[in-house]
Amino acid sequence: MDNLPLQRVPIVDYGSAQSAMERYRREGEERAMRLGNRGPLRLGRDGKPDPAILEAYSRCGFYVFERLLRDEELKDIERDVAEMLERAPVTKGSKLDRHGRPALGADCKALNVSWVRPLSDPLGGTSFAHGRHPVKMTEPAPPREAPEYVVQLVLGSLQFSEACLRLYGHPQLLAVAEAINGEDFTPFNEAVWIKQPGLGGSVAWHQDGWTHWGSPALDENTHGFNFMAQLYGCNATNGLWVVPGSHRIGKADIKSMVEAAGSERLPDAVPLICGPGDVVICNRQAVHGSFANTCEDVRVTINFGFHRRKSVLGVASGGVHNEVAVYDDQRIRERSRVIMYAIDARKRRFPDEKPYIYRPFAGQDHLYRWTPEAKAGLKDYNLLDLGI
Fold this sequence. Notes:
This protein is an alpha+beta fold. 27% of the residues lie in helices and 16% in strands. The protein starts with 14 loop residues before the first helix and ends in a 12-residue tail after the last helix.
């Protein structure tokens, strides 16, 4: 944590409101640890995940793979995240970083750096993303020393971080993606979340999908999932909260859920409790959100998701992650090539691992070597994100 260039501010005591929240966090942690959906990522001789893991994921909508990432990989990721923050615009809207250099993503067309006012909820109760954040979260008053904005999200992260790209090619995680979404699974998008200590904003309760809620073929995996790798771990204050099993209920009436609870503290929700190197798989249809980070611990989450091909092919989508477009074979293949570059990049860094074989490109490894030219070709790759 000390290696990241973060704004340091005093942590504020919120009195009786904080006491109620502390009780909610404590009870949420207890519920989370009773779910039986955490442990090492175990693969059988056939290379497939332990059925017990898939059962627990299906039941809860998320699973915590404990201690999956090695220390050397975490150090690689930490260095790259520190560099991304060092290169971030000096303030929102600037084209220069704090050293007067062109800022991260300044020459890109796609949105790359997302900002938030300290401890705020910029999305709740707005029409953003098809209105999927219907209720605003409580916004604690930030410390007087707080800046006007802080960086909270870096999108299209694979073009800025080779460590994140290598993580994207993790053979065990890709085996999980295949088990859930089929061997022709497709990308979704990638990002780095940085919930800064005493400053990070909240993300109002929501479900991620928006295209298939009315489909007669809707099931618990229609809108895909996200992997969430934790650099330092996360707790009930700075981490994501999930309502277990809510990925199975279709489109949730989140506003009614909050009204019934009497506050945004949904009584069935649980926090993700993780240590450094843990990776969570979380269903995008699950009701989830996060509160403002009022603690002194930073959360850094390396986020990347995958879909079923049949959920994406022929779908007209966009408006959240990119411009409206129809996802045809060519677009899916162009976006999926990033998986091949990730596999090759990881093989070079971790030659002791057995690389994953991505079936849609099987036998074509020689066409997707991770080279300086390939790296340059990833610029603005996230304009092709497959959001559904």
